[in-house]
Design a protein that fits this description.
The complex is a heterodimer of chains A (116) and B (115).
Chain A (H helix, E strand, L loop, with lengths): L3 E2 L4 E5 L4 E7 L6 E7 L6 E7 L4 E3 L3 E6 L4 E6 L8 E7 L12 E2 L3 E6 L1
Parallel strand pairs in A: 2-11
Antiparallel strand pairs in A: 1-3, 3-8, 4-5, 4-9, 6-7, 7-8, 9-10, 9-11
Chain B lengths: L4 E3 L2 E4 L5 E6 L6 E7 L6 E7 L2 E4 L8 E4 L6 E5 L8 E8 L9 E2 L3 E5 L1
Parallel strand pairs in B: 2-11
Antiparallel strand pairs in B: 1-3, 3-8, 4-5, 4-9, 5-6, 7-8, 9-10, 9-11
The chains are: A mainly beta (116), B mainly beta (115).
Chain lengths: 116, 115
């Protein structure tokens, strides 16, 4: 069925290091992917998105990579800071962009812990 | 601009009682979503509104959950009667509703504990 999963439930990194958070998706019809950050007690916050016609997209200190061949998505955070500590979710739209009406299917999440 | 507002932030009820959550989306956003987030999991879509019409409620347990968005602005989600497994954070999100982005803006959520 439709699902988005993450390889690692927790990730611990040293402040200043780069972080890589991975995500596997199962629906080959998905053509839009998005990463959210969720801090404790708050709602998810948009980080970056990517369409399936791209394999890489960069934002401020973040890069998303998409490998459609193996249905894999990753989020790279450069120079990780203590404020990056949160749970990170990937989500997919589960089908063709124009048909899905904005629906998102979320994965389980990876908890990122940044050590000072 | 003001974000998505939700109330209450916390609610504790006993099983078989009723509860209602309120959401006010970002002004002008046509699409509104209700999600259930169980501890340690990602949000799961319960229902999606486009203006005041339901787009998707396939994962809404309709025997106990109901939602409405009568005037196409704010929305309420109700659970009646509640079960222990309904303990979760209920998130409301909104989006502009035009094609081009799926970015959804989330509220802080309502944490429900059913005892």
């Amino acid at each position: 069925g439709e699902s988005v999963g993450l390889h690692l439930p927790t990730l611990s990194v040293q402040e200043g290091d780069n972080s890589i958070i991975n995500c596997a998706y199962s629906n080959s019809a998905s053509d839009y992917f998005i990463w959210y950050k969720q801090e404790s007690g708050k709602g998810p916050q948009f980080i970056i998105d990517i369409r399936s016609n791209m394999d890489k997209r960069q934002g401020q200190r973040v890069t998303v990579l998409l490998n459609k061949t193996v249905k894999h998505l990753s989020l790279q955070i450069a120079a990780t800071q203590p404020g990056d500590s949160a749970v990170y979710f990937c989500a997919e739209n589960g089908g063709p962009f124009l048909n899905q009406g904005g629906k998102l299917i979320f994965g389980q999440g990876t908890e990122l812990s940044v050590k000072p | 601009e003001a974000g998505v507002a939700q109330s209450p932030r916390y609610k504790i009820i006993e099983k078989r009682q009723s509860v209602a959550f309120w959401c006010n989306p970002i002004s002008g956003h046509a699409t509104l979503y209700w999600y259930q987030q169980i501890l340690g999991q990602g949000p799961k879509l319960l229902i999606q509104f486009q203006n005041n019409g339901v787009v998707d409620d396939s994962q809404l347990p309709k025997d106990r959950f109901s939602a409405e968005r009568l005037k196409g602005v704010d929305s309420t989600l109700k659970i009646q009667p509640a079960k222990l497994e309904d303990s979760a954070v209920y998130l409301c999100a909104s989006s502009p509703g035009y094609s081009g982005t799926f970015e959804q803006y989330f509220g802080p959520g309502t944490r429900l504990t059913v005892t």
